[in-house]
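lol ok so funny story. i was supposed to be doing the assay writeup but got distracted and ended up predicting the structure for this chain instead. priorities right. anyway since i did it might as well share w the group, maybe its usefull for someone
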Amino acid sequence: MKSDSDNYSGHNRITTALLLAAGTGSRLFPLTQNSPKCLTLVNGKSILERLINNLKSQGFKRLVIVTGHKKECIMDYLGEKSGDISIEYVYSPLYKTTNNIYSLWMARNIINEPFVLFESDLVMNSTLLDEMVYPDRMAIALMQPWLNGTTVSVNKANRVTKFQEGTTDSYSDIRYKTVNIYSFSLLSWQGIIKKLNQHITEGDVNSYYETIFAEMTDNKSLVFESVSFDHEPWYEIDTIKDLAKAEILFPRELKKIDRLDNAMAS
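and the output, tada:
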């Protein structure tokens, strides 16, 4: 899909990231019993390390992490800085009984600038973020047999027109899977905060934040440009089976000495 990122000058690039990492990762037990999901190793390198490397390569300067389950593991691992990226933490004490709508709400007071939203179970090639560092974009992928969950419809201008829950109903249009990476302008974020406040005040703490994005897309108060993730590897790791598939897509990187040994053996 064609992007209009060339219309943005360099100073419009987003340099703040928000990572939601509060959940227990129960479907990855026992790997997540004593460690948060984002520290799960994929061929020797954690999901979090891979994300940090991707953020560094894209020039990010600030990372805010909403923590919950085993928060001290993340804080001990990263500290307050990684390279040029400053790191801040927001603890969600109700992480066991709330969903990601609540985690996103927890970030309402600490972020007051454009940012890119990430989940803690994604691994991807850094180049996939090239078009995501500009405001009001949404990562999507064509539906595949292994994908499930929220889908969206996209018009000819690559704008997201509607969110749909699940994929069980038959449909005639082309559906795309949400990859759970979103970028927001400050204006969009301010509108989202208002909606978040409404939902949380009404006790809606167990929904997904897509509920709000869907409402705002329907009333056109939020407009996403879609960014295709079909041209490079990415994977969402929810289960042990997912982890096995991700390790096929993201093989272990050979160290220099290993490459020399392989060359000599051949």
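The first strand starts at residue 16 and ends at 21. The domain at 14-138+179-265 is CATH 3.90.550.10 (Spore Coat Polysaccharide Biosynthesis Protein SpsA; Chain A).
back to the writeup now i swear
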